[in-house]
Amino acid sequence: MKILVCDDEKIIIEQITDMISSRFSNYSVVGVQSIKELLDIHNINEFDVVFLDIILKNESGIDLGLYLSKKTPDTKIIFISGYQNKVSEIFFSVYPFGFIDKPICSEILYKYLDAVKDEKEKLEAYFTYSEKGKDRKLRYSDICYIESNREKLFVNTLDSCFYVWKKISEVEDEFPDYFVRCHKSYLVNMRYVLEYKKQVFKLMNGKEICISRSKKNETEVKYFKFKGGFI
Q: DSSP character for 50?
């Protein structure tokens, strides 16, 4: 994995780098001390994880986190800070993967990195189906949402759609936990949810999917847990 550490304290960058290197020798780590240095990185979307200080001298790490979450939505943002009063701000504005308090606890850091690794492996899993007598497969992570219409399932990606002869109840349990059954007819990949309000998911392709009353509580819990990390 490729990891970026952004903190205005060089000693924190060195500490995190040493922690990662001592356990994950095949992970690469890049450290920067300012927003300018970070924005100068042209391949920012190639990083799997960004450890980001909430306050970078006179700059806002929260604003930077919001920028990164929109520019590279697959990159996991983990905030680090000694300012506990700032924690609520990041979870309501950025929805990071997690938060680590200073001084850095190596076990918490390792727990997050293990979780990122597990999620990456899930993203490589495949949905298998048959088309014209031939076996096909599509990464679950490329599926935006599934729509059920009687005996058919319409599988939608951001730019295409096809159907398979199956019921949603037959495949629901096969899908990774970043999918949510928010309606009897819809199974939604939460990675593609751009906005959630008034019991509606607005997806990156502009599609709006209603959340049924019977699924509202379950959907909210799963969605906010997905957005807010696991610790």
A: E
Which pLDDT belongs to residue 88? 55
CB 57 within 8 A of CB 44: no
**Separation of alpha carbons 109 and 188, rounded Å:** 30
**How crowded is the C-beta side of 121, counted as CA atoms within 13 Å?**
6
Give mean pLDDT, residues 162-166.
Answer: 92
Q: In b/e form, how buried is each residue of 178-214, taking b as 16+ CB within 10 angstroms?
A: bbbbbbebbbbbbbbbeebeebebebeeebebebeee
* Paired sense of beta strands 98-101 and 161-164, if any: unpaired
Separation CA 111–CA 193 (nearest Å): 26
Amino acid at 153: L
Band the pLDDT of 148: cuts 50, 70, 90. very high
C-alpha–C-alpha distance, residues 153 and 165, integer Å:
6
Neighbours of 26 (CB within 10 A): 6
pLDDT attached to residue 181: 96
**pLDDT reported for residue 146:** 97
Instruction: Say which range, 30-34, 126-130, 225-229, has the weakest mean pLDDT.
Output: 225-229
Give the pair of three-digit tokens for residue 166.
């199956």
